[in-house]
Amino acid sequence: MATIDLHAHSVCSDGELTPEALVLRAAACGLQVLALTDHDSIAGCAPAMRVAATCDLHLLAGVELSTQWLGVNVHIIALGLDLQAPPLLQLLERQAGVRERRAVAIGERLAALGFAGVYEAALARSASVQSIGRLHFAQVLQERGVVRSVQQAFDRYLGTGRKAAVPLDWIGMEEGVAILNQVAKVTVLAHPLRYGLSRTRLTQLLTAFAQAGGRALEVATPVQLPGEWPWLLAQATKHALFCSQGSDFHGPSTPWAELGGFAELPDTGSSVWRLLSDDRAA
Ligand code: AMP
Ligand code: MN
Ligand code: MN
Ligand code: MN
Fold first, then answer.
1. What is the pTM of this model?
2. Which is the CATH superfamily of the domain at 4-85+172-276?
């Protein structure tokens, strides 16, 4: 079990717990450090920080930005945010608009496929129209028996190129990294092995990310196959990236991605925590 978890979601995006409940769960799990990294939203950071101040837990304000790189939906995590920084607020306002328009378009596509009212039901599951995500749609499709699982909802309808997918309109990866670097201590490429890229293309993505100013790579995560960790560590070294770790916790209903539910990275000089630890004394 890890004591530092730098990737987790709340109801302010597609997680199941309120920011407050997330912090209490993290403290109960024995975490010392938690980063709240909702998709394209920082709405949960202030409430999470207020609760963290009452427990023995250091809370980092973070965000997981949706971006695109050569047609691939790439997630960039920023940690140690200045929550008042105007470039951050402008960026998230833009992302909220993209998210809202995309949700309406997904709803229209599903309606055209014969599934009416899914947008309204997905909206009812999310904290606001700006926090609506594909997971909410997937959950509605599963609830209605259209699909057997969330995974099937992505495979058939919501994944890139599937029946109800809409073309990507997210900010470019490089532009996103540049803005986040102005407002955060660290930018991290999230879950590099989940983009369905060949190792060659993934290496190209890492090169582009590092050239754009990206600082770290998510290496330690709950679901990992043998051999993946050494390969990622070697890539981090090759591209001069620090190493990050996180569960990508979304809620109690996905127990295989529990808070801190992964083997901690060795505390070498390349741990991203080194870039953030001055924050701890603050
Ligand atoms: P969005 O941010 O709206 O594009 O939705 C992406 C989110 O959907 C991810 O962060 C996951 O929480 C969730 N998800 C679950 N299964 C999948 C999948 N097979 N492919 C992509 N996203 C998935
Ligand atoms: Mn998610
Ligand atoms: Mn992600
Ligand atoms: Mn995530």
1. 0.97
2. Metal-dependent hydrolases (3.20.20.140)
